[in-house]
Amino acid sequence: xxxxxxxxxxxxxAILIAAVSMAVGTGNIWRFPRVAAEWGGGAFxxxxxxxxxxxxIPLLMSEFFMGSRSRLGNIGAFRDFMGPRxxxxxxxxxxxxxxxxxxxxxxxxxxxxxxxxxxxxxIQPGINGQAYWDGFIGNPLETIAFHAVAVGFSAWVVYxxxxxxxxxxxxxxxxxLLFILIVLAARAVTLPGSEEGLRYLFVPDWASLTSGRxxxxxxxxxxxxxxxxxGLMMVYAVxxxxxxxxxxxxxxxxxxxxxxxxxxxxxxxxxxFAVAPTPEYAEQALGAGNVGLTFIYVVDLLATMPGAMVxxxxxxxxxxxxxxxxxxxxxxxxxxxxxxxxVERHRAAVYVGLAAFVFGIPSAVSITFLDxxxxxxxxxxxxxxxxxxxxxxxxxxxxxRAEINATSDMVVGRWWxxxxxxxxxxxxxxxSWAVYQSVTxxxxxxxxxxxxxxxxxxxxxxxxxxxxxxxxxNFLARKVEAGPMTxxxxxxxxxxx
Amino acid sequence: MDAELIFWILFFxxxxxxxxxxxxxxxxxxxxxxx
Lengths: 497, 35
What we know:
The structure holds 2 protein chains of 2 kinds.
Chain A: H1 12-23, H2 26-30, H3 32-38, H4 42-70, H5 74-82, H6 87-119, H7 129-137, H8 140-159, H9 162-190, H10 194-202, H11 212-225, H12 232-238, H13 246-275, H14 279-286, H15 289-304, H16 308-339, H17 345-365, H18 367-395, H19 397-406, H20 414-441, H21 455-479, H22 484-487
Chain B: H1 3-33
């Protein structure tokens, strides 16, 4: 039986809210709609659903299992599941997500800033979205200031602990986020002309299902959107109550995340096609990337809408809430892992906050650097997912499945075991495709580590990280506190609170 | 909004809501049984 940790989520609802908040991020709002519209609408949604079953749900269950059994963050969990010689795998996972945290805090800061300025009525007819964005992103003092706001808030929440901080805040933020998205989506679908956008989203282009690219895009979206393989579910599960239902909870989290994506996509695509002067303009907006769509085209369109004084702040508030709730999870990951080395929570939260602020500054100052980090660590998340499946294989897939079933109200069948064993193959396909993309993007200098999206930059930065975690393996294995898997349930837990 | 679009919206949104509802029902049943 797993030992009760000092901190704990107060209820099943609390951990579900936390986990769904972790999963629902800015990508649900600005990436999912674009990709769904581009890759065959309903056909893409079918492929996403398959990806949920094959990749996301098995990995979420695995992470939940590892966190709740080890009662340790990623580093300790991998040590206990794969043996001390493979502690580096947990460190790799933790560093990748922390690397994402550095620039994600900058992005959350953008969302907060746009919420604030929309409250002042800045988004009104006559605004030039591109110029407004360029003015902001070209002002490092402003980007750093809002980066500091996002960092400070997240660090404060984590400082206050699981119940006093995360649970209290997320129980407000997630319902507020869902309410806003539903209201805005309902408004969007009633606008004349919105049907074209909804058609892009929901009506399947069946021919797309035969396109390998569609499946790769769908699996990639699922991997990044649900948080599966990030290590965040693993950390939240450290504080799960005993006998928490792993299987049903994981399914709720995964399907909720995609459903929120549907709502956000209805909002974005419905509004875009209703308000855009021409369908071509709407398609142009969808091709403009996450930043272009959200901070330029949507700003321009929102400014022309009746009720912009209300709709614009609501939209950017939803983005800010989505960004902050995911950022809080990343901060908790850093904090929990530090606590496992004997650092008490308050001090750990401050260290994580300081690190996030300092190491996020380059991304705040240079969007090219941010894009590079998003690319390098985004693809590295696939490796983290692979490592999670390997940890379960090492532990024993059927042994893990039996233990998951012991506390689940739903019987997890052999499909889960098959999926865990298939994940390495899925990883190989998606990973190879990502590398292929970067090679074809830079056919002359794909090896150049200074190019933003090159293979060279990924390989170099990963090599540095691998060298670091391999060299620290024995140190980490020794220094991470013992958990119930190594200590046994009868000994009180040590470490920070 | 034509019939085809309405069908697919109901299919996907309704389908996901049904699936979620199924899992939430299981979760609520366990909660009711908890002391």
